[in-house]
Amino acid sequence: MSVASETNWKKLDEKIAISGQISVDDVAAIAAAGYKSIICNRPDGEGGEHQPGSTELEEAAKAAGLQFAYLPVEIGQVSDEKCSAFHQLMATLPGPVLAFCNSGNRARALYSRDVGTTTTPAETISAACDWEHEAAAVTEAESEAAGAAAVSAASSRDEAAGKSIPVTPACNWDNAFDIVVVGGGSAGLGVTASLLRRRSSLRIAIIEPNDKHYYQPAWTLVGGGAYAVDQTVRNTADVIPHGAEWIKAEVSGFSPNDNLVHLADGRTIGYQQLIVCPGIRLAWEKIEGIQETLGKNGVTSNYLFDLAPYTWSLTQQLKGGKALFTQPPMPIKCAGAPQKAMYLSCDYWQRQGVLDKIEVEFDSAGAVLFGVADFVPPLMEYVRKYHANLVFNSNLVKVNGPEKIATFEIKNEAGEVTRVDKPFDMLHVTPPQAAPDFLRDSPLADASGYCEVNPKTLQHTRFANIFSLGDACSSPNTKTAAAVRKQIVIVAENLLAAKDGREFHAVYDGYGACPLTVENGKVVLAEFGFGGKLLPTFPLNPAVARKLYWWFKVKLFPWLYWEGMLKGREWLTRSTETK
After folding, report:
1. Of 83, 167, 524, 546, which is least packed with CB atoms within 10 Å of its CB?
2. Nearest to 528 by CA among 575, 459, 474, 477
3. Alpha-carbon distance 235 to 45, whole Å?
4. What SS3 state is found at 556?
5. Considering its fold, how many domains does the chain have in total?
6. Do residue 310 and residue 417 come from a single domain?
7. Catalytic residue numbers, as ranges
8. Looking at the domain assignment, is residue 170 inside a domain?
9. Range of the domain at 232
């Protein structure tokens, strides 16, 4: 937003005007308009890389002869402490003052409220629902009308009940956001970027509690010594799509009949349409003793950012003994990752001439090596090459780290289960995985706890304004970043069709891909859809391990992720049309 003219901010009185986000270039115009001081009420980093920092703005203000104060206020209820500090600044800074945040609502609430008084519902809603952004800011009249309607309804209801109006840090406008996206992982960021490229005026909020964003597909490479772990992480603030609002909070539940998302901090966010993509959680609690020994005693997992380097360290150190690699019951993220860890370690040991001294075993809770039969023969060639022992229907249930004993429940053909203890020198664990509790226990979930969708349209089967993609949706595709890349297009097109009352044309074919790193320098690129149907992107035999695909895995795919998928560039995507 630019404040090059006074029409772009709201003058509250002779002392103060409020504004949305300003830029460094706007400072000169502010000074020229006669303002003497600037107060920044927006926390640094809230708007991502497109938001200038307070230090940068302060330098520009000083150069223009203005005073500058930084008083950050998080989206939510305006506290007495912040309010008192704001009024103290107003008393000491030379005026008139321009105060800004993302839309001006927090600055307005700070100035309008007397210190020590209870926040009015209008002020609370205004401060908590700081959802306007420059691409689609609602007019002041619309905002005031919506706030007045909410206050009027609350007042009538509570007065009739003989109660005072409660104060909660909540946003209860039904139309607070056009779209709320639950989850700021690859699915959430990618679909938001694609939607904003299609329609930049959309008001979209992303609810994501984590400060860091990870490119998880490369962690297998980190564990194999072929990728630097620091290249797999960036600040969440730096990857939030421009024009979207980041709400840094945890979700606690949903009220789909009221179009509300509940946050763990007590706030409630309204939406017109909802996209559910929080990913799935690692259910370490299902393996007794594992959490006490992860990262030591030879126990590791490429499914954790901090431990993938430990996998590589253990691989380099092991010169003999027993190495166990485990795979839990499905579904899990990237079904091929457990065996990829084994292949890369074995390749290193073979190159170092120590593989013959290491007993390698792959324990899988499943009954087959890979779920798509076409890829089993080439994978078995590598199993034999590395002299690995395959044990199916074998599920890890307990780990004694100090004693280096792993306990498995093994099911025989009659369905009988026995417990077997196995010693190890190195243990790579793939954790059991499950839907997040807040989704599993909600009205959105199916019997397995995942967000229930039509697998072809990715629209919820019971709530027409809800869509889901990624690992948390119930579609029976493989849970990979490649699947997300294709699902983004389906959700973006169908959600907007639903918004406009148009017929759906985009149909998901179940595409997923698993680049199986069978050795350092070669990959079997498994691409398939629903029912195991092969869906190769390139006109080559997909069952052959190739150096080209290794280059894809190490170089091309990470670049496509950061520079394409997370920025709404839908390269190498394909959707099936109904017409």
Report:
1. 167
2. 477
3. 10
4. helix
5. 3
6. yes
7. 334, 514
8. no
9. 179-215+225-280+435-511+548-577
